[in-house]
Amino acid sequence: MPVFKDKERGTWFVQLWYKDIFGNNKKKKKRGFKKQSEARRWEAEFINSLSSDPEITFQNLYEEFIKDFKFRARVSTIKMRNHIITKHILPFFKDLKIKDISPKIIREWQNNLLECSYSENYLRTISQVLSSIFTYAEKFYNLQKNPYKISQSIGSNERKKVINIWTEEEFSIFIKEVKETNFSIAFKILFMCGLRVGELLALTFEDINFSKHTIDINKTVSRDIKGTTIAPPKTKNSIRTIYCPDSLIKEIEKYKNSLYDVTETDKIFCFTHDALRRRIISISKKCGLKRIRIHDFRHSHASYLLYKKVDITAISKRLGHKNVKVTLETYSHLIPKSNDYLRKILEEIDF
User: Fold this and answer.
1) How far apart are CA 259 and CA 235, in angstroms?
2) Which of 14, 29, 107, 323 maximizes the CB count within 10 A of its CB?
């Protein structure tokens, strides 16, 4: 029996050997149980979680799922999923065995959520997290029937948030009041190149090709409760090389030459996300401009390109979207109406 008494602490602990999925011997130790029965219960659940069958409880399944997920996602994404699971999912499902979770039980859980005043988009996000856990159980715990697929999802992906943008004229008024060179360049990159703020703050001088007039986007600043870290971009498509206007490239090069003892691996911008936000608030108020978020500079860039009738595929690649569908879902309402132009082209057909 791998349950032992810790005489010094007056508690119980579990210590056992087991084989992982690759057949390797592993040692597991868990301390701090007040009662022997609690230690035995944990031991039984742990052993059960190794059996790769639907006898596993949802709590154990979640622990295995999140342990696996940590190797495949960004810190901010892990934090978000953990929050959703612990707040909306675990309280309802944690003590149930996955084999006993029926579509009707999931439906009951969904009805509880629908009684709350959550947005359609948030309901959909919660629902998708539960779906991913059951998909994991299908793949790795021999779950024969996925009850989530029968119960169907809730919520929708309709984005009701209004996208605020600045026109070229409004940005011109704003940028004239930005007196610090580094902040001025940062705002111009956001507006003229459409970078995400994390991508902007992660830029180093080696990412700028002054001869080819390009910016290489290959990393981002990720924020969490522990602080900021440099991480891979949001998606594989976010890794991209984009064209940067000649005037802006020259401005970046001039700024680089003005710095003392700078290296290629040095970050271009050493200020924070909040420093940018504070300047937007103060300067837009001073100039009588409507207040926008930092991310709205990216929307403004996309809006300008759409207004100039740039191909949607080219815009999607420039923004680093996963696919064109994401670009269309976000900016379809900004695409100029072309019925008149289409009619004119068709009328010109002459056989």
Assistant:
1) 33
2) 14
47 phi, psi to nearest 5 deg: -60, -40
**The CATH number fitting domain 168-334, selected from 1.10.443.10, 1.10.8.1000, 2.60.120.10, 3.40.50.300:** 1.10.443.10
Neighbours of 237 (CB within 10 A): 15
Residues in CB range of 216: below 8 A, 6 or more apart: 207, 208, 209, 241
CA distance 290 to 32: 56
Structure tokens at 135: 């998909």
Supply the DSSP symbol for 146. Answer: -
pLDDT one digit per residue (tens) for the chain, 351 residues: 577 888 888 888 888 776 654 456 777 888 888 888 888 888 777 766 655 555 678 888 888 888 888 877 777 788 888 899 999 999 999 888 888 899 999 999 999 999 888 888 889 999 999 999 988 888 877 777 888 888 888 887 655 456 788 999 999 999 999 999 999 999 999 999 999 999 999 999 999 999 999 999 999 987 654 567 888 887 888 999 999 999 999 999 999 999 999 999 999 999 999 999 999 999 999 999 999 999 999 999 998 998 888 888 999 999 999 888 888 888 876 665 555 655 666 677 665
Where are the chain's structural domains? 168-334
What's the CA gap between 250 and 255, in Å, rounded? 9
Residue 125 near residue 296, CB atoms below 8 Å: no
Task: Name beta bridge partners: 215.
Answer: 208, 242
Distance of CA 185 to the CA centre of its chain: 26
Q: At what angle do helices 181-193 and 273-287 cross, to 10 degrees?
A: 90
> What whole-number distance in Å separates Cα of residue 73 and Cα of residue 54?
26
